[in-house]
Amino acid sequence: MKKISLLTIGLAATVLSAFAPAKTETYKIDTQKSNIEWTGKKVLGQHNGEIKLASGTIVTEDNVPAKGSFAINMASISNKDLTDDDSKGKLLGHLKSEDFFGVDKHPQAQFVTTKITKTGNGAISVAGNLTIKGITNAVSFPATYTVSGNTLTAKAANVKVDRTKYNIKYASKSFFDTIGDKAIDDEFTLNITLVATK
């Protein structure tokens, strides 16, 4: 009877481990610790603020984010750059109106991943579908993540969204040639911070 070498055993273990199922964990997004910072620019300046999340989950495989989704509470949109309450109220009222996000009819936006690819240590490339005002478009962006104990933190900076793809055309130079210095950029940017626990 031939002896089984240690090398053979090692190779067999390597092959078996390659086909072993990945360890899957589900993390629930903490809506109090997570947030989205938004920035919208126009010819004569810009505005910025925050939006809160309503819910969401992130699923990891071997401690790497593999898929996820989250809902955004559009009614929570706030402004940080204006100090005058009247001006701030007018801006937020306009952003919640049909000219922009139509919050009464569409109280939530949603993002659902379609593919997440690991690109480095603590780095991933995220692709998914973003739904605003009932309209869905594909978006993609790089992100970073850390896992510490029962907590996963994921961040993405400067995520660009073209508002006109969601039928938000107010004061867009792409649709109104004579808008002049009242034009608002078609793209707004998001800085996303997700904190989730299992």
Overall 3D geometry?
elongated
Q: Which stretches are poorly predicted, pLDDT < 50 over at least 5 residues?
A: none
* Distance N to C terminus: 50 Å
Fraction of helical residues: 10-25%
Largest sheet properties: 9 strands, antiparallel
Strand content: over 45%
Report the strand count: 9
Rg calc: 22 Å
Say what oligomer this is: single chain
Structural class from helices and strands?
mainly beta
Average pLDDT number:
91
Number of helices: 2
Order of helices and strands: HEEEEHEEEEE
List the helices and strands and how they pair.
Blueprint: H1 6-18, E1 24-29, E2 35-42, E3 45-61, E4 64-79, H2 85-96, E5 108-120, E6 123-132, E7 135-148, E8 151-162, E9 184-197
Antiparallel strand pairs: 1-3, 1-9, 2-3, 2-9, 3-4, 4-5, 5-6, 6-7, 7-8, 8-9
Describe this structure in words.
With 198 residues, the protein is mostly beta strands. It is built from 2 helices and 9 strands; from the N terminus they run H-E-E-E-E-H-E-E-E-E-E. It has helices spanning 6-18, 85-96; strands at 24-29, 35-42, 45-61, 64-79, 108-120, 123-132, 135-148, 151-162, 184-197. Strands 1, 2, 3, 4, 5, 6, 7, 8 and 9 form a 9-stranded antiparallel β-sheet that branches. A hairpin with a 2-residue loop joins strand 7 (135-148) and strand 8 (151-162). The longest helix is centred in the first third of the chain and has 13 residues, at 6-18. The radius of gyration is 22 Å and the shape is elongated. The mean pLDDT is 91.
